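Annex B. Sample input.
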Amino acid sequence: MIILIGVFCAAVYMDLRFYKIPNLCILAGIASGFIMTCVSYSAVGLFASCATMVIIFAVFYPFYLMGGLGAGDVKLLMMTSCFMKGGCFIQYLLVTFALAAVISVIKMLLFRESRERVLYLGGYLKKAALTGSIDSYRVDKTNKNCVIRLSVPAFISLIMMCMGVY
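Annex B, continued. Sample output.
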C-alpha cells in the first residue's frame, strides 16, 4: 500500500495543480500493482487484475464520455483495482463516491455557482431523457467552486482504508 499511497500523492498533486493525472503516474502504479499481484497470487491474480481493470473501464467510460468523470479519474480507479481485490475494492469505491457526494453537497451549500450546476444537470438529464441523445456535459474547469476532483476523495478513502476505518 505504500507504493499506492506514493503514486496517489503524485496523482492528487498533479490533478489539483494541472487538472490532469499523468499517464506515467498511472502506468507506474499499474506496473507496481501487477508486480505485487504476480508475487502474491501468480498468473491467476494477474489475470484477475486485468479483468477487474476492464470491468472498471466498461463501467466508468460512459461517465467519461458524458463529461461527468475525467479520463484520469477512470485510469486512477483502474490502477487502484490492481492493488485491491474483490469486496475490498467495491467497499473502496463506495466510500470514495460517498466522500465525493459529501464534498459536492458542502460545495453546493457554500457556493452559488455549484447550486447553478445542479439546475444545469437537471436540464441536461431532462434533455437526455426526452430526446434519447447524450450530449457532452459542459464543465467549466476554471471555476473551482463547481468541480470535484475525484482524486481527492479517492485518496481520502485510501487513507481511511489503510487506517482501518472500514
